[in-house]
Amino acid sequence: MSASAKLPPFDAADPLGIDDLLEPEDLAVRDTVRSWAADRVLPHIADWYEKGELPGIRELARELGALGALGMSLTGYGCAGASAVQYGLACLELEAADSGIRSLVSVQGSLAMYAIHRFGSEEQKLQWLPRMAAGEVIGCFGLTEPDHGSDPAAMRTHAKRDGDDWVLSGRKMWITNGSVAGVAVVWAQTEEGIRGFVVPTDTPGFSAPEIKHKWSLRASVTSELVLDDVRLPGTAVLPEVTGLRGPLSCLSHARYGIVWGAMGAARSSFEAALDYARSREQFGRPIGGFQLTQAKLADMAVELHKGILLAHHLGRRMDAGRLRPEQVSFGKLNNVREAIEICRTARTILGANGISLEYPVMRHATNLESVLTYEGTVEMHQLVLGKALTGLDAFR
Predict the structure, then answer these.
(1) What is the DSSP letter of 354?
(2) Gene3D superfamilies this protein is in (predicted)?
């Protein structure tokens, strides 16, 4: 570019020009999901959050299915076959509305559907994936237990053969979508090792009481799964995987969506703080004109858009088939931590108004406290990276 060429204007919403990295199809996906969230979620989310409920979740799921947002990076069986970057952009826009909405989509597509798509039989795929992609059936993913979160290898849920059948018993905890799901992917100990099972939730012995009294992810359905001698046919087991490789690969796919989603919550909080700083007056002028406020906004913008760049980079690696689990841990560890800090700083700019549900900041901040520890705590991702860097295993 010649020295005399005219530079594009500075865009406060995209200060690094990251949109230049996106294809028209990417932008179309982003704008479609953003428009849906603005119409269907944002007018109601404060009320849903305050009441601790997500009314009309089945209708929302069908609408998300019509958008192609459920299992959108999977191919075939009614799935959209979108790129990893497009899926990431959708996660960012959904979490900019609320983490609970993004969690609904992540658990449906990146955990339950992904497990069936990657490890299921052709019969299982045909039975479940088209209806799940359409949002006609909601899925959940049963791995975490009351006493075993970061150490799933020690799970107590077990499955035993009984003739041609399997009989499952155990409990799972903190399961998104559990009490509204029509199908659950449940992981259990067997004589052969850890296996995954596709469990219709109307099977006798299966129940999913909803967990109440949450102060985070309030606009999300969270449940316990209780399996009391649940009898399943031999065809219910996922045939293509044995061991922890199965559930951990599903978690890695879901964590990738979190890398993007956390930046959506951060963006929403940053935009609220920026708008507030431009209009809120103290000492005779907008607080955005004071140096300390500008320093906060500058630091928030730097971390926000660094995080989006990191998410974009990981998305391109996933699309090229080169994304490693350690790199996903890198992204989740950084982006969720920075998103929380952005929300906290935004709260200081809004002052007392920052704790009000009239603004999104405190809602995002409390939601992110859950995102910080689900699908891998900070400590677990630090140890994943520590092992990758040193070659030494510090988990035990």
Answers:
(1) G
(2) Acyl-CoA dehydrogenase/oxidase, N-terminal domain, Butyryl-CoA Dehydrogenase, subunit A, domain 2, Butyryl-CoA Dehydrogenase, subunit A, domain 3
Cα angle at 328 between 132 and 73, to 5 degrees?
30
Please tell me the pTM assigned to this model. Answer: 0.94
Q: What residue type is 299 in one-letter code?
A: D
Residue pLDDT, tens place only, 106-163: 999 999 999 999 999 999 999 999 999 999 999 999 999 898 878 888 899 999 999 9
Query: Do 24 and 151 belong to one domain?
Result: no
Q: Choose the final residue of a domain: 133, 152, 185.
A: 133
Domain region containing 358: 245-389
Give the pLDDT confidence of 66-81 residue by residue, as tens digits: 999 999 999 999 999 9
Q: What is the DSSP string of 217-259?
A: S-SS-EEEEEEEEEEEEGGGB-TT--STHHHHHHHHHHHHHHH
Q: Which pLDDT band holds residue 2 (cuts at 50, 70, 90)?
A: low
Q: Verify that 125 and 34 share a domain, yes or no.
A: yes
User: At 173, is the secondary structure helix, strand, or coil?
Assistant: strand
Of the candidates 310, 213, 219, 212, the residue with the CA atom closest to the CA atom of residue 266? 310
Place of tokens 């007392």: 352
136 is catalytic: no
